[in-house]
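Posted in: Protein Modeling Q&A

I'm a second-year student putting together a small comparison for a lab meeting, and my supervisor asked me to include a predicted structure for Histidine phosphatase family protein. I've never done this before, so apologies if this is the wrong subforum. The sequence is pasted below exactly as I got it from our records. If anyone can share the structure token output, I'd also love a short note on what stands out.
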Amino acid sequence: MIRLLFVRHGQTEFNVKKRVQGWCDSPLTQEGIKQAESLIDVLKEVDICAAYSSTSERCRDTLDIILNDRDIKKYDRKGLKEIHFGLAEGERIEKVFPNGTTNLSGYQDIQGESKQQALKRFEDEIHSIVSLYDEANILIVTHGSILKEFFSHIDLGFKQAAIEVNGSVNRLISNCSLSIVEYNQGNYCLVSYGKTYY
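Accepted answer (user: helix_wrangler)
Welcome! Here is the predicted structure, written out as tokens:
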């Protein structure tokens, strides 16, 4: 069995400024660095076979902090990037998502990705990663929106349970939260999601 340890990147400057951040990037804040540091002790006893990151700076920096000079092989993968929000990149969140609502189909109409395209890209990358291992703990640092799409796909009760607990899916995957997915013989099982340690 393979355990995938998914971590969303730490808080960034665009998170604080409430700007849409998909394929565009911004650095971690001091709070984001502290959030990543909170996972050093949580994961230090876990035998991590390999670590993967989105190619976005905020994810690579988060991964570097978490690993804290551990001798673990690191890989950057473009397929782990966030949904591409097209012309909405960098815009204020309340302008793009009034009342907190998101575009259900995606952002292909504004030169971005549909949610289906983004999910397929992400899933293909995850499949390529798990195909390399038999039994392992694998750390993957990626992004909030794409994680929510992936979790909703592998666990049909994810969104409804999230809404019942939080009132919204939007607050479900906080910065530097840890989620665990088990993979066994072609099947994914969402074990836990969105746990924070700061």
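A couple of things worth pointing out for your meeting: The chain has a mean pLDDT of 92. The longest strand covers residues 187-195.
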